[in-house]
């Protein structure tokens, strides 16, 4: 079909990206430092991007182009949201600090329990997606709290229907305390449930 659609003059484009931010349909992307119309059917032809361009690189033209497809636009936005790290919180309970958490709570029943060192969520970019999702999380720092979490974690694991245990720690020596407390608590409980220890490097990689 012949319809009105934007045209981007790459010679005039200075790569500022303002047009891409102004386009609510996300039809414009930055490719090799230049603005580009990604797909014809993402462009609604309303021109929200035109006033955002400081160099006059964007104009309207009438040409053969696929019609605007709102469904395709929404699907594209959803895909981008799913790819964004940390875009959506996966946390389902509060509090999260081991020191503040109750030893019994409804959310512990049937829970996959995550016990994590404070720093891990900052070091590992996909922490919510890869670790907090579908888990109840407790966090702590044995160095800063200067206490032994073993007794409290033993009470939590013993007194609730915990289905699995995941411990996430940093590679640094001080994180050994939270691993020791969690594993000892599981042993003290006498329960046989799946468990694992995951170690994160200081540059955000999973080591084991």
UniProtKB/TrEMBL annotation:
SUPFAM superfamilies: 4Fe-4S ferredoxins (SSF54862). PROSITE patterns: 4FE4S_FER_2 (PS51379). Residues 4-33, 34-63 form the 4Fe-4S ferredoxin-type domain. Pfam families: Fer4_21. Signal peptide: none annotated. InterPro entries: 4Fe4S_Fe-S-bd, Corrinoid_activation_enz. PANTHER family: IRON-SULFUR CLUSTER PROTEIN, IRON-SULFUR CLUSTER-BINDING PROTEIN-RELATED. This is Electron transport complex subunit RsxB. It comes from Eisenbergiella tayi. The gene is rsxB_1.
């Amino acid at each position: 079909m012949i319809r009105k659609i934007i045209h981007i003059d790459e010679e005039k484009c200075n790569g500022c990206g303002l047009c891409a931010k102004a386009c609510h349909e996300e039809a414009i992307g930055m490719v090799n430092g230049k603005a580009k119309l990604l797909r014809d059917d993402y462009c609604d032809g309303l021109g929200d991007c035109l006033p955002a361009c400081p160099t006059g690189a964007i104009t309207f033209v009438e040409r053969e182009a696929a019609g605007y497809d709102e469904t395709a636009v929404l699907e594209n936005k959803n895909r981008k949201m799913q790819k964004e790290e940390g875009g959506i919180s996966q946390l389902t309970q509060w509090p999260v600090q081991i020191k503040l958490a109750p030893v019994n709570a409804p959310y512990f029943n049937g829970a996959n329990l995550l016990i994590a060192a404070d720093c891990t969520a900052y070091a590992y970019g996909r922490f919510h997606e890869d670790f907090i999702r579908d888990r109840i999380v407790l966090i702590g720092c044995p160095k800063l709290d200067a206490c032994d979490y073993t007794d409290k974690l033993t009470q939590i694991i013993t007194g609730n229907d915990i289905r699995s245990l995941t411990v996430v720690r940093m590679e640094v020596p001080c994180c050994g305390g939270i691993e020791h407390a969690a594993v000892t608590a599981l042993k003290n409980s006498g329960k046989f449930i799946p468990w694992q220890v995951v170690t994160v490097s200081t540059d955000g990689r999973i080591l084991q």
